[in-house]
Amino acid sequence: MRRILTSLLFVASFAGSAFAADTVSGPSAWHGYLPQCDAPGVVARISEKFAYQDAHIGFTGLVIANVDGMRERAVSAGGPSLVDRRYCGATAWLSDGRQAEVVYLIEGPKLGIFSIGWHVESCVAGFDPFHVYDARCRSIRP
Questions:
Q1: Does 13 or 67 have the greater pLDDT score?
Q2: Is the separation of the CB atoms in 89 and 73 below 8 Å?
Q3: 133 occurs within a structural domain
Q4: d(CA 39, CA 140)
Q5: Helix H or strand E segment including 28
Q6: Three-class SS of residue 124?
Q7: How many CA atoms lie less than 13 Å away from 57 in the CB half-sphere?
Q8: What is the C-alpha to C-alpha distance for residues 127 and 142, in angstroms, rounded to an integer?
Q9: Per DSSP, what are the bridge partners of residue 103?
Q10: Which has the higher per-residue pLDDT, 10 or 47?
Q11: Residue 14 domain flag
């Protein structure tokens, strides 16, 4: 009986240290789940979402020609939420030559092992006619 109890305590202490390693916050522990703000896949998703929105809601004929000045504003990772978030901002150059602020949020992984990959929510300031993201994209800012 003593051997069984000792074995269980050993296994429990090992499992506890493994869990602690998974919950440590910091750049080395969590930033690997989320792509950087300037990752090509992230920029492509921003452009695709803007094109879809314009084709179905805006009807301006505009597309994002280029995105530059990508910068990270904040990271929310390793906290009580199961979803890590990277808040970013950039400048979008539209097909008519105008520029607009882009606010975007990269999220992932959602619900641990039941999710694959990451997700991007983006908002181009001035092109959200129904204020889905509130005025000036406030709801996806840090």
A1: 67
A2: yes
A3: yes
A4: 19
A5: helix 27-30
A6: strand
A7: 11
A8: 20
A9: 89, 123
A10: 47
A11: no
Q: Assess if residue 91 is contained within a domain.
A: yes
Tell me the pLDDT tens digit for each residue of 37-90.
999 999 999 999 999 999 999 899 999 999 999 999 999 887 787 788 999 999
- Please spell the DSSP secondary structure of 57-122, one letter per residue: II-S---EEEEEEEEEEEEE-SSSSSSEEEEEEEEEEETTS-EEEEEEEEEE-TTGGG--S-EEEE
Q: Find where tokens 């006619």 sit.
A: 129
Euclidean distance between CA atoms 97 and 58, whole angstroms:
17
- CA torsion, points 130, 135, 139, 142, in degrees to nearest 10? 150
- In-domain check, residue 80: yes
Domain holding 38, by residue range, is: 33-140
Domain tally, the chain: 1
Query: Which positions ≥6 away from 107 have C-beta within 8 Å?
Result: 34, 83, 84, 85, 86, 118, 119, 120, 121
